[in-house]
Amino acid sequence: MPKQIKRVIPEHIEKVIPILQKYALGDFSENIKIPAKEDEYTELLVGIHIMVDDIKELIQNQKDTTVSLTTRVNKTIDILEQVAKSEYSVQIKISEQNDEFDSLSRGINGMIDEIKNRIEKEASLNEELQSSNEELKVTNEELNEAKLSLQDKITELEKQQGFMLDREKRIIEVKREVNSLLKELNRSEKYLKGV
């Protein structure tokens, strides 16, 4: 019996070793063949076969995750490039995974919203400022017109004042003449002294 075991072990090992070497290098293209007849090594070969299937699934999951992350990163870069070109109506789509990348995406979306709100507020303030400047310009023009009108009125009043002063001087002169004439006639002065 020991000779049979020695003969069986090398047969199984000889068939499995090259496949295991390929597995060690990451080549899972070949499967270990499970013999139809069960023996003491069948369970080991089934275990290796299940382990290899699990490794293949893990590798595929890793590839899928890498593709998914690459896609999400590229979409995020596209959104950020649009934001860089002043397009603030864009948002990064949040996945259902609720992972760190979704947290990052929510943060970026919040920043995009904040930038958009600040730009809208700045635009609104600029419009208000421009409107106020226009109102001030109109008010300034009205004040300049009022100033010119007041200057014209002051000039007119100064002329009238000059006429009134001349008239008052003339009246005082006439009163002095009347008083002087009355004095010559030996009559009392009609107008108070100091005139």
Largest sheet: none
Global shape: rod-shaped
> Percent range for helical residues?
over 70%
Count of separate DSSP helical elements: 3
Structural class: mainly alpha
- Report the order of strands and helices: HHH
Proportion of strand residues = under 5%
Query: In whole angstroms, how far apart are the ends?
Result: 164 Å
Number of strands: 0
- The Cα radius of gyration reads 54 Å
- Summed over residues and divided by their number, the pLDDT gives a mean of 89
Would you mind describing this structure in some detail?
It is a single chain. The protein is mainly alpha-helical and 195 residues long. It has a domain at 1-87. It is 77% helix and 0% strand. It contains 3 helices and no strands. The protein has helices spanning 2-24, 42-84, 100-184. The termini are far apart.
Summarize the SSE layout with pairings.
Elements: H1 2-24, H2 42-84, H3 100-184
Describe the structure concisely:
The chain is an all-alpha fold and 195 residues long. The protein has helices at residues 2-24, 42-84, 100-184. The protein has a domain at 1-87.
Summary tags:
mainly alpha, 195 residues, 3 helices
